[in-house]
Amino acid sequence: MIYFDNAATSFPKPRETIDAVHDFITRIGGNPGRGSHPLSIDAARIIFDARDRLTGLINGKDSERMIFTQNGTDALNCALLGLLEEGEHVVTTGLEHNSVMRPLEFLKATRGIDVSIVPCSTAGLLDMSALKAAVRPRTRAVIINHGSNVIGTIQPLDRIREIIGKKILILDACQTIGNIPIDVQRDGIDVCCFSCHKALFGIQGLGAIYMREGIDPTPLRFGGTGSNSEHMEQPEALPDRYESGTPNTPGIAGLLGGLKFVERVGLGEIARKKRAAAEKVLEGLLRIKGIRVYGEAEPGDHHLPIISMNVDGVEPSEVGYACNRAGICVRVGLHCSPLSHQTIGTFPRGAVRISPGYFTEDGHIDRLLRTVAAR
Question: How many domains does the chain have?
């Protein structure tokens, strides 16, 4: 099986990830923070190490403000439902994922939140003039999809921060973390939300949210934390305030393995290899008659290794079926982002998304191109 769906989740996983998960479930297995026995302490050390390394990856100031969540959607829900209050105004973009738009729709209906959606070009570039016009004195937050999961466009955070001033910047970094450097201090990111199973090479079922000092959303979950158990009230100390219940320690162990892989290989080398694979895919697609590629013309430093395309006269599902029969995994449809497809003109039909990864080989690309050409 040849895999071109790394924007959904990375596969295969590096040996470091596999070994870390196997080691935890076969050798440790304890519940962190819920006991003083050695296996509980070893589990807690894994979480501490992963939290510390993850905070360092984005140049965060305080690892206690790195909160583990169920996934990237859970992290975004924590930020949006926990921060936005009755009648407040927020600004977002025309390239957002449903993990942003559905919570905002819920908040519009239940709390009277006012939402402004700033348009993007068909290449995925945010209209900066429209962004400036959308920000009001009563705007509470600006929510930005850092890198599009449909066409791969990366938004310029420096320009965005300059325009929005001191408004809270909430970043959906699910596609960018692990693919490009993120520096929450340099880029003025107040809240950074992401999943850990994509370019961080963790396993599914884990995400995280980093919040700068002074950002303290209301928790979405309450319960046991292994701390202050004599009190009925939720602890105020971080990270416990937001991490009720038994954590996904096998997932965190896998993330720690993935982070060690990223550190060993180097973020720059990983990005270079993915970019080279995406460039080869794009060059091959553009030589095939009847192919339409959406977004920018070619992947580069400001573009993720994500390519969405269609074949003239052929439904995306038919292309996906042909790929399935050839043993090739691609993603077809609306990619949980109908706004993005409205922006690029592919709604409601959708598109075929191709997202190579670090382990993509030239032979995989050649087979994909032959399959698409034959469709």
Answer: 2
Q: Are 148 and 66 part of one and the same domain?
A: yes
Pair (289, 333) in one structural domain = yes
252 and 270 in a common domain:
no
Q: Are residues 270 and 221 in the same domain?
A: no
Nearest alpha-carbon partner for 216 in 85, 127, 42: 85
Tell me, what CATH number does 143's domain have?
3.40.640.10
- What separation in angstroms does the CA of 67 have from each of 83, 229, 342? 15, 20, 33
Per-residue pLDDT 10s for the chain (375 aa) are 999 999 999 999 999 999 999 999 999 999 998 888 999 999 999 999 999 999 999 999 999 999 999 999 999 999 999 999 999 999 999 999 999 999 999 999 999 999 999 999 999 999 999 999 999 999 999 999 999 999 999 999 999 999 999 999 999 999 999 999 999 999 999 999 999 999 999 999 999 999 999 999 999 999 988 888 888 888 899 999 999 999 999 999 999 999 999 999 999 999 999 999 999 999 999 999 999 999 975 555 679 999 999 999 999 999 999 999 999 999 999 999 999 999 999 999 999 999 999 999 999 999 999 999 987
Listed residues 221, 242, 264: the one ending a domain: 264
Sequence-distant (6+) residues with CB within 8 A of 211 are 65, 67, 79, 190, 191, 217
- Both 185 and 46 in a single domain? yes
Domain encompassing residue 275:
2-11+266-374
Nearest to 193 by CA among 261, 248, 144: 144
